[in-house]
Specification:
2 helices; Alpha-Beta Plaits; 6 strands; elongated; about 20% helix; four-stranded antiparallel beta sheet; about 120 residues; two-stranded antiparallel ribbon; alpha+beta
C-alpha cells in the first residue's frame, strides 16, 4: 500500500517519439506528474517513449483520455529498403501503408508508493 493506506495505480503508456513531448505537456497541464523514458521497439524499430504516471484509481480514465488525445495514430508509407539478407531480415518490394503512432497503455496495481 502507498502512504496512509491509499491505493495507487501506475499508468504506463508507450507513445511515438513524435507524440511524447505533447503527451507529457498535456498530462502536466492536467495536474498529473509524468516521467518519460525514451525507448526503441516494435516491428518498425521506431523510437518511442514510455510515459509513467502514478495516480489514484479514480484518475486512471482521465490519464488515458489525455494520452489518447495527445498520441494519435496516423498512416505512413514505408518505402522499400534493401537489406543484406541476413537472418530475420526481410525485403519489401513495394511501398506499404502502415498505421503508426497512437498509444499502448498498461494500468498496473502499485503495492507501495513512496515520494522521497
Amino acid at each position: 500500500m502507498s502512504p496512509a493506506g491509499k491505493q495507487m495505480k501506475l499508468v504506463l503508456a508507450i507513445v511515438s517519439k513524435d507524440d511524447a513531448e505533447k503527451t507529457v505537456a498535456a498530462l502536466t497541464k492536467g495536474d498529473f506528474r509524468a516521467t518519460r523514458i525514451d525507448s526503441v521497439g516494435g516491428f518498425l524499430k521506431e523510437k518511442n517513449a514510455i510515459i509513467l504516471v502514478g495516480t489514484e484509481p479514480k484518475n486512471v480514465a482521465k490519464v488515458c483520455e489525455i494520452v489518447g488525445k495527445s498520441a494519435r495514430s496516423h498512416e505512413e508509407t514505408l518505402a522499400p529498403t534493401p537489406t543484406m539478407g541476413g537472418p530475420g531480415d526481410f525485403y519489401m518490394a513495394d511501398p506499404v501503408d502502415v498505421t503508426v503512432g497512437g498509444a499502448t497503455v498498461f494500468v498496473l496495481d502499485v503495492d507501495q508508493f513512496k515520494r522521497l
